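TA notes. Do not distribute before section.
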Amino acid sequence: MNSKPDVPAETLTSLQTERLMLRPIDVDHVDALHRIIYADPDVAQFYSGEVQSLEETRDIVKHSAWLNRHSGTQGWGSWAIFRKEDAGLIGRINLGRPDRTYYTVLEEERDSPFVPLDTEIGYAVGKAYWGQGYATEAARALIDYAFHTLQIPRLVIPADEANLPSQKLLKRLGFRMQRNVHPEYEGIAGVLQNPAFPGISPPSGQGRSSLHDQSSLSSEREETVEPTFETNQYYIRGLELEDCEPIDRIVRNTPDTVRTSGHMHSYEMVSGDLLFVHDGPTGSRIREGFSGRDEGLGTFVIESKSDRRPVGVIHLGPAARNYWIAIENDPHGECARFEVDFACIIDPKVDTLPNILEACEPLLTYALHDLRLARLVTHVDQDDAASIRRFRDLGFRIEKNMHPVFGGYVAILDA
């Protein structure tokens, strides 16, 4: 099911080098990518982990292409690598959306709730093109794009300890190798700091207290189990495809919400994941329905217990620097935090402060206690006095947004 987009999809930009063209990946590239990457065990073992079937490759590429079409101003995505001399497709390269890489914990930051903004580059070139400098050339182009155009503070790339050629390439590109002490993915990682950002050491680990004394989830929950919260009036559960239309209808029927928060203008199942574009006043953002995997972020439905209908939605995440937020005198400076945004939209018929508090508090506890997030950071429109009041009632502090374009305010809730 798709809603009819009333905001045009934003395509990813193409890049080029002396010998190469980097064009946004599209479904037309499935057969070539399958042949040179996903069906070749020598290439696939270090990129996708194992050989993929053609149908699995199609799902992977379809997912990448969807993200490319909706990347908006964020600028991350996946490119197919073409040689200029013969227009042949020789590989792929991707720039992960700027967030915490959940399978990387650098040893020097293991005790800190604050981590710099980590963005990953991944690449794979067909075996017939190894040893000719193509991967290095494509990676340099993407690094330049990430650092100069997107102003990303640093890149972090988990590396397979058995893949010595990849490690040599990272070192050639200027990455320094560090220990990755993630309990499940322990190994090494390459780190490259943007020269424009001198790098600020995150503060050493501080106590991360919960918003409340008790969490509604066990800290030993299974990460593949969707968390469901129950209050006196509501179930708070993961967003499903059939929820999208009623939730979007609620948003569109609330003019102030549309003006300040936007709405879902496109949503669909892509390779088994519920993805949608949230068209907010600060630009489109790609969001996901709750995946129940790893990071535990996503979009949750507020469901009335009395008639089991959706009455609102809560966005938790994505875990990324808010590009439209600049906080004055931020002690963490250009070191972007392990922070996520938080937004609650509720049907005007039940839009009261007690109902907002009842729906939001379980997810605030979940975010700060169970997920151990450092803080929640959300942009608030200049004229949105109602949201400012509600964020304050939820315990957020309000600061001026110093971003030169977007302005307004920032609501911040520290752990």
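Switch to the second chain here.
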Amino acid sequence: MKIVRPYTVKGKMLCLVLKCLLWPVHLIYGKRWERALEFEENPRTYRFKDILYFAYKYYYKSPELPIVDNIVDHFSKRPSHSPEFETACTISIGGDLMPYEMIKPSSTKYLWDSVGSDFFGSDLVFANLETPLDVSQKSSFVPEVMLSDMHFNTDETTFSIFNGAGRYKGYDVLSVANNHSMDMGESGLDATLWYLQQQSISAVGAKHQQSDPDYVIREVNGIKIGFVAYTFSLNQLLPPEDKPWKVNYLPLNLSHCPTGRIEADVKACRAAGAEFIICSLHFGNAYQVYPSMRSIDLVAQLFERCGIDVIAGGHPHNLQPWRYYQYKEAGTGKQKTGFAIYSLADFIAYDIYTWCHLCAWLKISIGKDSSGEIQFRVDVNPLIMRRENHQLKLYPASELLNSDKSDSELEDIRILYDLCKE
């Protein structure tokens, strides 16, 4: 199932033309592309056929089923996790914050009304800032229909909307490791880091100096929470040759991705006192219901080799499944539980692909049990970005999907919602 809903006449005409151009591609490759393919999805390594596939799954038909059947089984047999402890702190984690043209004050008056108090009400609030913010350079927003590589650059007004529009406390930590990190060059990345610092927001995933730590630690009620972040791509760009450490850039979408860098960072974060570690991974394939086997294998390896507690994925734009993992930590043999969501999806954005209007945020409760061991649980809160009367608003998904409201967009979203929750 696939519905693209452009909101202007120009956008509708462009999408119609693209669909007509992709019809011959469907005749040739459609059967083969009904299931998700394993490919890096890094523009630096694209072949012409990769470009065709990416365009096809966005503008024509996205794959609902994975190429490996046991991926569905992997998510249908999810272990439960219900430890007993007294909550000492809470963390909210949102998905990707993207500077779409639609995200402006005149169209977001009610954006946070239904969810803002809950989301920003946690002790720590985290998300992925998928754009530079360099006020010295011209702003560049995501257009209604993307026809080429885009170099993003948001402004202070849009960032204020991301940050709760002045009605809530805002973010405490933001990842800046994603495929748009270098869009405004090294100076744009540095400007973004400085801006966040001025807003008392910690940034993770990129840094000013090589000597700066590759992690962030925030303490709440005596519990130290660590954050690390990595991206699989910088689009057509790379970190400066003399500063490969500038952005945490690793081949996360390739088979047998080396994990030594992440292991070292997590170890250093633990040594600095972190008792609970959250890893933001910008990885995976866009517009697909399920992650690839590569992504599933990588997540399992990171739990076992690093002892990470929560992995929060981003980049695919639409929601993907989640589950707890029970594993033995390498080196210690300690039995542990981790949690991963493969894609939280676009959080504050407005893509014309309806599946991208379904996202989720995590509420993590952390405390210590009777033996003094750190325990946690994760509540997944699916949301729908709805456009009504030219206004965008986030709704709890259950509120709309269980209501009397019914239209083609909600029916399309319901398919993805059911697949992710099964």
